[in-house]
Amino acid sequence: MDNEKKSRILYVKRFLEEQTDEAHQATLKDILAYLNGEGIAASHRTVAQDIELLLEAGVDVVCNRSTQNRYFVGAGRFELPELKLLIDAVQASHFIPHKKSVALIEKLSALTSVHQAEELRRFLYTDKQIKPLNERVYVTMDLLHAAIRQEKQVRFKYYEYTPKQRKAYKYGGRVYEFSPYGLIWNNDRYYVAGYSRHHGKVITFRVDRIAAPKLTDIPAEPKPEGFDIAKYANTTIQMYDGPLREVALLCENSQMNAIIDYFGEVKSSVTDKEHFTARVSVAVSPTFFGWILSFGGKIRIAAPQDVLCEFRACLEFGLINTDK
51, 87, 153, 226: least buried by Cβ within 10 Å? Predict the structure, then answer.
């Protein structure tokens, strides 16, 4: 195949991918007009041959045969509802910075025809979601992925916000030595779970609060026996950890959806006509107690007694602990 023919086929492919979809089909005349506009010589016969070669190469070109055959690229690309779903997820994410959101949406829009891309833009709304202020979060993500893959430790600082909305490093800028085991998407934020030498146990850090991360050559601490990242995520409320306990929750019947949303399928039994008891494995912490309170009495701690006493003490003294 000569270079001229290769070039023409690529232009035909580009035209079909960018300019056609099921609602916007093109005739050979349309394709020829495009090629002529690009300074490429062609005829009905050569373009028809080019389309046949594209089909042989696996490009999903659909032909509606009639007095003038009409062509468009079929199911090989994302469908419009799929792209809308992905774009909605990008827009709604608290984790993805605003500039990165705009760039990702542009890339997603380029995965369809110009006609459907224009329709996608009409569905975009002004992004008023709370976005992270840490624009280097993607660099941190890459570094954590590398550390997990290579089973190496990382070092970083961790910050919080002061009442004046200024960043302040935890513990005066302590450098954490951390062995990452996995990344968790929870409550529309990314967390990294792993072993912290400072804490002496497996904990989580919010990825967008990590500062000055560095990958080391130090081997990561081995995972605790039986550690499972999915199970760990399911037992931790909003990524605040505590001692893992088996807790019985007395719930109104209407709250089964909430239990399954947080814990998945659990052991449960009918208590009376209006209540059931769910037995869950959960990291007991003030955050867990706050989660219980959010249901206004529709979900209550039934057992064990020491967890119930801790819950009452938290209520009495207003204990809140979010330190990392």
Answer: 226
* Nearest to 112, CA basis, from 35, 179, 185, 23: 23
For 201-229, write each residue's pLDDT tens digit. 999 998 888 999 999 999 999 999 888 88
The tokens describing 132, both together, are 């992270």
Q: How far is CA 71 from the centre of its chain?
A: 36
CA distances from 16 to 49, 78, 112, 178 (A): 15, 14, 10, 50
Could you tell me which residues are beta bridge partners of residue 252? 275
Residue pair 6/53 in contact by the 8 Å Cβ criterion: no
Secondary element (H or E) of residue 97: none
For residue 129 the two structure tokens come to 């979601």
Report whether pLDDT(26) > 60.
Answer: yes
Determine the Cα–Cα distance for residues 88 and 82; give it in Å rounded to an integer.
10
| Beta carbons of 216 and 154 less than 8 angstroms apart | yes
- Residue 180 token pair: 């990452």
Residue length of the chain? 324
Let me know: does 279 contact 268? Beta carbons within 8 Å: yes
The β-bridge relationship of strands 176-186 and 167-169 is: unpaired
Question: Would you say 39 and 32 are in contact if contact means Cβ atoms under 8 Å apart?
Answer: no
Q: Which residue has the tokens 């893959």?
A: 149
How many C-beta neighbours within 10 Å does residue 210 have? 23
CA 154-230-270 angle, to 5 degrees, is: 145
